[in-house]
């Protein structure tokens, strides 16, 4: 229908300009929708009205945003606080995909023309939806005015529909030509203002969504998916920058092609080697400006190519080779750099073959889409850079933690790799609990919780950094800075030499003269054995040490000294291991130091339980452990796991000088006794045995001769 455009009177024009300023200034999108419909009703004297919106890039349906009717006192959506009860109206038939022209608003959307109907019941078009709503609400719809809202890129943003124009006496009349002109002018302002706010809200939502991703590996596919949806691109690639300082290059990271059904995430994939990176420099060290992606990275410019086969500015040999091998036709390209907050290029987003939403034919990327894709690239780069920075910090933390663990192990070759083996055991136990569907059916760890457990396992002995080397390195009972047994053996050697070459001149020497070389050799062997320590030292052996202390030897000045000093006697009589009571207290204090160290660190929320997990591995289920004397009920499950991991590693360690490598049979027997004594968690011990954690650990760490258990069921009885 051809309409003659009328010139609005000055007062109306000024009023419309005031409305336009108000619409463009509105930052609350619901308030904006409300104002658009309210002003439309006010200017046209409409009794009712509805505002619909759609996705400008992929208009598939019209969604009800606000429904208002003065006579029926209906106000849904917008700022009303009440949800619109009507379902979206599809723009296309679901069976044949033909345009849906069965309603006034969908006709206006497809025809992109204002529709003015004086009486829907007399109209040649069938308006079943309108008549059905009238019957349900006891309303009578007569005059209808529907206006498509088109943005500056000639895309459909929505539809504004008004119902039942009224005269001064509230009689229903037709919307006249003046109403058409007023609504058309209002629609121009409204479509631009709405489009801007919808884009801003969409980008905010997208930024929030992208920021929620926990890894680059899951984030990148989402970025590419959103970019393709925004631009109607059939294919796309995301490149990430690598070796920025030495040999900068763009590496293929994510590749998608809907036509060829390609969806590849190459991060961490061996397949990545099949896609050679694009260097940013040529052989002469100059910027590589022949490849479109490297040009984009070097110049930090967006590049929009309508037809790669007609373009002479860039080399598309690789693209053409791909097309020949796949039967594809790469035509339009939109390439944009991903810049971080320092304006450094961290990657490139490339989109290929924009599609017409109706015909599906390949078309150039619209110039109007460039600001949108730049905005998306900005948000994507922010989210991606955050992930890269987060991963860098995480890698640094991991390296620092492992460095501390290596430093602790390096303090003593006799506990070498303990801090590296406990994390392995801890992970095996935790995985067994996650897989268990019986006792631990409710236990599970997400990605963050797994990381928390690993950090705690690596840091479980960090307090040993404060333990004196003389205690931590005490591999034998007489060891200080060196093994004191050497001094005792030297005394015996001196005594043996003197007895072999002198005549006794005193009662003491007469007593010693009764010792033979064989006796001295036996004493040396006994004291050497006692010095090594072990799981248990008999009372009679301790008494023998005290008796041997009474033997004296004479130095070069003729002074007599006891064979063993009181300190040496005390240490040689240590009943278990190599540490005295005082030394045991010193080394046990490493647990309190561990807790103090870890609790002083500002761990983020996701790592808040690291001190509790790491600091509980010397606690016992009956409360007799240290440093806090916690009971089973007071300890978390991971803390109880840590106790078993720490004990089992110590029992089976093959590098402890005071004992030979313990076989699995003995280690499991000791653990079983500890379970029965209520020292370790009984359910976790049963899981440890039932899931054969011990077997998996043995295959990775222990000597073949230590693996002397096949089944392990006997330890469950």
TrEMBL record:
Pfam families (alphabetical): GAF, HD_5
InterPro entries, per database record: GAF (IPR003018), GAF-like_dom_sf (IPR029016), HD/PDEase_dom (IPR003607), HD_GYP_dom (IPR037522)
Residues annotated as domain HD-GYP: 494-704
Name of the protein: HD-GYP domain-containing protein
């Amino acid at each position: 229908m051809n309409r003659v455009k009328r010139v609005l009177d000055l007062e109306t024009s000024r009023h419309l300009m005031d409305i336009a300023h108000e619409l463009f200034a509105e930052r609350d999108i619901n308030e904006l929708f409300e104002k658009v419909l309210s002003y439309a009703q006010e200017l046209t004297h409409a009794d009712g009205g509805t505002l619909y919106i759609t996705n400008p890039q992929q208009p598939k349906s019209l969604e009800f945003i606000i429904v208002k009717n003065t006579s029926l006192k209906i106000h849904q959506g917008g700022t009303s606080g009440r949800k619109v009860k009507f379902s979206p109206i599809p723009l296309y038939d679901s069976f044949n995909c033909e345009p849906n022209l069965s309603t006034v608003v969908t006709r206006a959307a497809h025809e992109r023309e204002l529709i003015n109907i004086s009486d829907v019941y007399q109209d040649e078009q069938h308006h079943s939806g309108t008549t059905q709503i009238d019957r349900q609400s006891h309303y009578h719809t007569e005059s209808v005015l529907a206006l498509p809202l088109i943005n500056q890129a000639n895309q459909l943003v929505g539809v504004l529909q008004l119902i039942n124009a009224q005269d001064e006496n509230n009689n229903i009349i037709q919307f006249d030509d003046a109403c058409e002109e007023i609504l058309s002018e209002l629609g121009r302002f409204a479509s631009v203002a709405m489009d801007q706010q919808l884009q801003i809200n969409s980008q905010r939502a997208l930024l929030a969504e992208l920021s929620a991703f926990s890894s680059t590996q899951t984030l990148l596919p989402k970025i590419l998916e959103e970019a393709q949806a925004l631009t109607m691109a059939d294919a796309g690639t995301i490149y990430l920058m690598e070796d920025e300082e030495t040999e900068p290059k763009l590496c293929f990271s994510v590749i998608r092609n809907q036509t060829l059904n390609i969806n590849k995430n190459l991060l961490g994939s061996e397949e990545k080697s099949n896609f050679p990176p694009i260097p940013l420099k040529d052989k002469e060290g100059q910027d590589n400006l022949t490849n479109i992606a490297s040009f984009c990275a070097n110049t930090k410019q967006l590049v929009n190519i309508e037809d790669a086969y007609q373009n002479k500015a860039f080399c598309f040999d690789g693209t053409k080779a791909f097309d020949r091998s796949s039967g594809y036709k790469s035509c339009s390209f939109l390439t944009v750099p991903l810049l971080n907050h320092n304006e450094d290029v961290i990657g490139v987003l490339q989109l290929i073959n924009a599609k017409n939403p109706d015909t599906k034919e390949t078309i150039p990327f619209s110039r109007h889409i460039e600001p949108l894709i730049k905005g998306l690239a900005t948000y994507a780069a922010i989210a991606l850079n955050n992930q890269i920075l987060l991963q860098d910090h995480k890698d640094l933390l991991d390296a620092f933690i492992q460095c501390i663990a290596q430093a602790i192990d390096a303090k003593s070759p006799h506990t070498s790799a303990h801090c590296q083996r406990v994390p392995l055991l801890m992970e095996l136990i935790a995985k067994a609990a996650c897989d268990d569907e019986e006792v631990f059916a409710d236990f599970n760890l997400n990605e963050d919780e797994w990381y928390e457990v690993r950090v705690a396992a690596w840091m479980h002995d960090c307090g040993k950094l404060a333990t004196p080397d003389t205690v931590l390195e005490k591999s034998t009972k007489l060891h200080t800075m060196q093994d004191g047994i050497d001094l005792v053996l030297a005394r015996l050697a001196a005594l043996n030499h003197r007895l072999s070459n002198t005549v006794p001149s005193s009662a003491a020497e007469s007593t010693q003269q009764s010792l033979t070389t064989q006796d001295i050799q036996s004493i040396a062997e006994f004291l050497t054995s006692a010095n090594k320590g072990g799981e248990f030292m008999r009372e009679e052996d301790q008494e023998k040490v005290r008796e041997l202390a009474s033997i004296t030897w004479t130095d070069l000045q003729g002074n007599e000294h006891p064979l063993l000093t009181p300190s040496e006697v005390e240490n040689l009589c240590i009943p278990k291991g190599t540490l005295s009571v005082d030394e045991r207290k010193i080394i046990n204090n490493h647990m309190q130091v561990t807790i103090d160290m870890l609790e002083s660190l500002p761990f983020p929320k996701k790592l808040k339980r690291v001190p509790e997990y790491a600091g509980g591995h010397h606690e016992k289920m009956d409360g007799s452990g240290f440093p806090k004397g916690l009971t089973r009920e007071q300890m978390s499950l991971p803390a109880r796991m840590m106790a078993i991991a720490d004990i089992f590693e110590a029992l089976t360690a093959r590098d402890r000088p005071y004992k030979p490598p313990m076989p699995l049979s003995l280690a499991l027997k000791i653990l079983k006794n500890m379970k029965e004594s209520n020292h370790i968690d009984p359910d976790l011990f049963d899981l440890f045995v039932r899931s054969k954690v011990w077997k998996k650990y043995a295959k990775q760490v222990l000597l073949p001769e230590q693996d002397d258990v096949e089944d392990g069921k006997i330890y469950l009885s």
